[in-house]
Design brief:
Blueprint (H helix, E strand, L loop, with lengths): L1 H29 L3 E2 L8 E2 L4 H10 L1 H15 L8 H23 L3 H34 L4 H11 L6 H31 L4
Antiparallel strand pairs: 1-2
Helix pairs in contact: 1-2, 1-3, 2-3, 2-4, 2-7, 3-4, 4-5, 5-7
């Protein structure tokens, strides 16, 4: 009984250390953003969800959620959005990572990963659209003292279909999150397989 308890404690400590390490990597990755010419300049892809995805696949869905949480809590110390950006990053991050982790836990194969990615993509796009429409873009507009139309104008220069907030969400935010999902998934799966035994 004692051996079982001590083994469980060792596993818990090991998991905590790994979650901490992946959270640290995630924060570093947040600093690197890539602007794609097909999207408005204020939409930049970062791959900081990768460590959370790796954690969710190798240690379980809860580990992925914890990595997303720690990353965004620590990022609050250098926030420029009064926490709104961090909240959005956390909600959208777990919207993607959690379904992938749950599906992969049931079916530890490429099929399970793809199923989770498809569901995660749908959930994340839906959450991103709702969050941007009702909270994030209005909050950013208020924070920068600019009208929402200013964001619409920036997006319109890239995509003529964007003429108001609704079309901004539909023709910029939604496809942006689809592309981000593909990038994270394509890089993430091989990394998970590579690091699986180590973690």
């Amino acid at each position: 009984m004692e051996n079982v308890v001590s083994r469980k404690k060792a596993m818990d400590t090991s998991t905590m250390v790994k979650v901490g390490m992946l959270s640290a990597v995630s924060i570093v990755l947040m600093m690197f953003e890539l602007a794609l010419p097909i999207f408005p300049s204020f939409l930049k892809i970062d791959i900081s969800d990768l460590p959370a995805l790796i954690g969710a696949i190798t240690m379980g869905p809860l580990a992925g959620v914890m990595i997303e949480l720690i990353k965004n809590v620590l990022h609050l110390f250098k926030t420029s959005t009064a926490g709104v950006g961090e909240l959005a990053n956390f909600i959208m991050g777990i919207s993607l990572v959690l379904p992938i982790g749950l599906f992969y836990k049931k079916n530890k194969s490429l099929v399970g990963f793809i199923q989770g990615t498809v569901v995660g993509c749908i959930v994340m796009v839906a959450v991103a659209c709702a969050f941007n429409y009702y909270i994030l873009i209005p909050a950013y507009a208020a924070a920068f003292g600019a009208p929402i139309e200013a964001f619409v104008e920036i997006a319109n220069k890239v995509n003529g279909s964007v003429v108001d907030l609704k079309t901004l969400v539909l023709f910029a935010i939604a496809p942006f999150n689809v592309v981000k999902t593909v990038v994270v998934a394509v890089i993430g799966y091989p990394l998970c397989k590579l690091l699986g035994k180590v973690l």
